[in-house]
Amino acid sequence: MAKKSKDVYGSDGQTNLLTFDPERLVLVTDEMSPLYDDRVNLPVDEALARNIDYQGVLEPIAIAKNPETGAAEVVFGRQRVKAARLANEWRRARGEAPLLVPAVVYQGKRQSALDAIASENEARRADSPIGRAEKMRRHRAMGYGDDQIAVIYNCGVETVRATLSLLESPAAVREAVDAGEITVTQARQLSKLNPDEQREKVRELVKAGEGVKPHERARRQREVLASNKPRTRGRREIEARLAVANGLYADALRWVLGLDDEPQATSAAEQQEGA
């Protein structure tokens, strides 16, 4: 006789896990309902849908039975349900079997459902950027392509590469990212500098963001990074330089301004004169 899972794993309890076609689950939109959460109106997360298409819904949602209609209403897990619906559209278009959504029955009182909705979301803790980068590195080492890693981590390929670049950054940069003082994108921009320049620039970025609101911090940090970019010379400035230039340098300026098809070769004497 087959053993029960409870006995096989030595668990202290067992609950029933239900599975649903996501189309049958009801997302409550009535603001007067205790199960209402305004995030039900958020757009479908396509990155999450790709992840679910790849490996299914890994974490069960919670449902409650509507006492009036008998429908299975979602207590928490709305985004997973919406993403699963989109993933199933793709799967049906490919001729593949649709996925089912695992669910547990919410055991609390219906009128207290908002407590569970808030707690379930607030209790989630995302991995740190460096921790995420290390896991991505391990996936790469296992032979996963960046496109596959992007699906697993619910992001784009560029985000995968930016996150992985953190592992090559100086400790000061990695610490600033983990502390939320600079972004992964900013860290990747710094990676174009040598290590000493990165350390100096990250100090400037952190200082620029101290004691200000997020919007102002973003503006100040953009200015810090912009100061690191080479300045583009305008047409008037180039024309002014051309007025006093000669030889190879003048040929190059004329070419930049579109006055010649290509820079003309000059003799060594002309180059000497232009210098």
What would you say this structure looks like, in words?
Residues 128-222 form the ParB/Spo0J HTH domain. This is ParB family chromosome partitioning protein. Residues 208-232 are annotated as: Disordered. One of its GO terms (biological process) is chromosome segregation. It comes from Pigmentiphaga kullae. This protein is an alpha+beta fold. The protein folds into 3 domains: 14-122, Conserved hypothetical protein from pyrococcus furiosus pfu- 392566-001, ParB domain; 129-226, Arc Repressor Mutant, subunit A (Orthogonal Bundle), CATH 1.10.10; 235-274, no CATH class. The chain contains 14 helices and 4 strands. The protein has helices at residues 5-9, 46-55, 78-93, 113-122, 129-141, 146-152, 157-165, 171-178, 184-190, 195-208, 214-226, 235-243, 247-256, 268-274; strands at residues 18-20, 61-65, 72-76, 101-105. The chain has a 4-stranded mixed β-sheet. A hairpin with a 6-residue loop joins strand 2 and strand 3 (72-76). Helix 6 (146-152) packs across helix 7, helix 10 runs antiparallel to helix 11 and helix 12 (235-243) packs antiparallel against helix 13. The longest helix has 16 residues, at 78-93. The protein is elongated and about 90 Å long. Residues 265-275 have low confidence and may be disordered.
Give the secondary structure arrangement, pairings included.
Elements (H helix, E strand, L loop, with lengths): L4 H5 L8 E3 L25 H10 L5 E5 L6 E5 L1 H16 L7 E5 L7 H10 L6 H13 L4 H7 L4 H9 L5 H8 L5 H7 L4 H14 L5 H13 L8 H9 L3 H10 L11 H7 L1
Parallel strand pairs: 2-4
Antiparallel strand pairs: 1-4, 2-3
